[in-house]
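Worked example 3 (structure in, sequence out).
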């Protein structure tokens, strides 16, 4: 259930946020559940280089999620191989509190492009619930190599059209 009383704010991600956001992907449990990560998620230079470019890309809508003046999440819309997709990451300390659901709902209100796809590891039940609560419908599955697990795994594909 989403906690509507959460004081969540979305704002465009800034260069100064990147050092803080980088720390999220250092969490081993978070990486495992996200599954699809860079080959070396500890390479800060590569992370900063990639996201600095993305922040300057007009097709990317990258937002930082703030809860009680603390950065807890990032969320973004991007285009890959002609498809518009969404991605988000929440600090594990804040899992299970409805933050991701509320943030995604607020993000979808400002990011009006449709359709948007969301991809999630087959066993990432929390993220599957977040997508479903926000109106995404599972439309298929695919397999891909998950660097965080060093294995090919199934991922579910979700879509929101409205």
């Amino acid at each position: 259930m989403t906690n509507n009383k959460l004081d969540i704010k979305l704002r465009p991600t800034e260069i100064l946020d990147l050092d803080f956001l980088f720390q999220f992907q250092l969490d081993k449990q978070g990486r495992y559940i996200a599954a699809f990560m860079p080959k070396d998620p500890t390479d800060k230079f590569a992370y900063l280089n990639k996201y600095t470019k993305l922040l300057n890309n007009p097709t990317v809508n990258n937002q930082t999620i703030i809860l009680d003046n603390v950065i807890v999440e990032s969320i973004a819309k991007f285009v890959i191989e002609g498809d518009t997709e969404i991605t988000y990451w929440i600090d594990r300390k804040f899992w299970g509190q409805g933050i991701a659901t509320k943030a995604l709902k607020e993000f979808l209100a400002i990011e009006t492009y449709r359709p948007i796809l969301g991809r999630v590891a087959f066993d990432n039940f929390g993220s599957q619930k977040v997508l479903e609560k926000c109106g995404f419908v599972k439309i298929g599955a695919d397999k891909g190599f998950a660097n965080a697990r060093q294995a090919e795994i199934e991922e579910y594909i979700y879509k929101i059209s409205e």
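Notes: The chain has one domain: 8-160. The chain has a mean pLDDT of 92.
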